[in-house]
DNA sequence: GAGTTTGAAACT
DNA sequence: CAGTTTCAAACTC
């Protein structure tokens, strides 16, 4: 009993510690606290101060990182898919992997008193992954994807992957964590199965510990490209604390779990939703959510807080701390909604969302508190998982939810994801209220927000990019007025096959169309402005003057860039030639070609964002699970094929290895985008990245103006490829 | 709501 | 890669 109390106290202590920033030795701090001392006196177990060993597992962590980059948008998609399945699986929890079971056993076997240690262990095995996940969500995603789709990626990435086998388990773990973090919400259904209880408690503890770490992570991100290194360090610290209990088993599984954990973060959300809603996952996916994100944002948060209040962790607090995991969790937890949001967001298709995102960004920011960059989403995108997307759910699941809460938009992916999240909410509300004509409504109402996608396809069967839904990576829903629609879960195979085909033609076909520029990254909130984003491919308008929605740039709320081949550009968000009414930054784009410097961060569409970026639709709807496509497309090439690609890619590879959180935030999709652009514009492609992560001005002729811009990729090069293979 | 315009996507 | 066709959204009436 005393032990339990002690644990609780510890938790409280942890929770209370406002300063995450002090990453240095959260544990030590913790230990020093009077409460801790008191506890120690009570408990027979003597606390061992955590010693941080930065090195030990760094390799591993790095290895995992690379996976993230395997295939950005693909991964996102996969993620979504993954999520979807996960949802289904969650209830039954059949998924528990052997690893999980092992852990559970061990945990159970251990005395309660030992829980702390166990927790640490769990952290190590699963917890580390978590931290990683929080730090580098993308990686997790990638891992998951790789698992599902192909292990090749994993292999490439690195050593750790070997075990992988249990896709499902990962999610559970993640859910576990999330729950733990949340506080007592364990019951969220996750099916924690057998030892769920124990795990939860353990996890919660671990999560607390992790929390400390997380802050550091955040810091790292802010700091510099090196941030990538940080995660490992804190992981190691955890490791140290509980060294070796598990022994071999853990090692093999750890990596996987870590990945899983990351995945879990995203995934977790879904399960929650399912519980809350009580509806079938499918149903959820199907439904669109067209709530006003504003509403969702604040309301959700409140919701979560209320829910969480009872729970050990206060959402608000968590937000402050900005624990990555928390952020993610929160959204998830919060609700039902959150879950929805999350999943969808991640998804792939931030594209649709992107436009929305722009509008929403401001609002989102408000909500966001701490600002963790995390991933989100990407990927997110986009992240987002997407956000990467999968049932777009991937979306960025992570992104939306946590984004909302977290808010700090530093990363594009986050923004996107947020947007996605909002969108999702919006969709939900709408779906409930008035399913049809959301689109127009949304449009009329605000503009982008709506984001709820509905199509009116007559001949394409909603299996071509003509179809907005399909293009956004979501299934068509009732509001759609399409004929002979095949873009439905029932025809999943067909949809996936078609998608695959399209991706084979154009790997980036489903990638977000709007990318954020690096500038935004710095500015954070301001960065979200449309000006900071650009259309990936650019438009080709001849008559619209880029002043109507015919123009994809205009539609996306971004200025035209060099990439645009438009004539008579009058884009109010920024003209190709550099004249931008809206944004000064737009000027950077100046058509002439200087542009290259655009740093492309995913703007998940409605980035995530979602993931990711992150189209709005994703959130609400069931995202289309990504096919293996990741491997197919060229884009993946960049990601997957670490070595193969040309110089650019090579850099990317480095980038992968060294990827910082920033990259993660950008979202999976981003990378491809970047790559593409690089192709298109030699200058941009290079994105000169100094090893330091400092931006190196590209050789471009036009550079002068662009000098202001920072390239996101910059940071990448500095680090040698983390992947074992890559390591230099 | 029907018809036109527009530009992306798809095809050749 | 360029030109043409197809398509569905955006727009107008």
UniProtKB/TrEMBL annotation:
One CC-aspect GO term: nucleus
Organism annotation: Ambrosia artemisiifolia (Common ragweed)
Swiss-Prot/TrEMBL keywords: Nucleus
Pfam families, alphabetized: TCR
Superkingdom of origin organism: Eukaryota
Family membership: Belongs to the lin-54 family.
CRC domain boundaries: 451-574
Record field: compositional bias (Basic and acidic residues): 1-19
InterPro entries associated with the record: CRC, Tesmin/TSO1-like_CXC, TSO1-like
Matching SMART domains: CXC
Localization (cell): Nucleus
Single GO MF annotation: DNA-binding transcription factor activity
Protein name per its UniProtKB record: CRC domain-containing protein
Region (Disordered) location: 1-26, 221-259, 610-637, 677-709
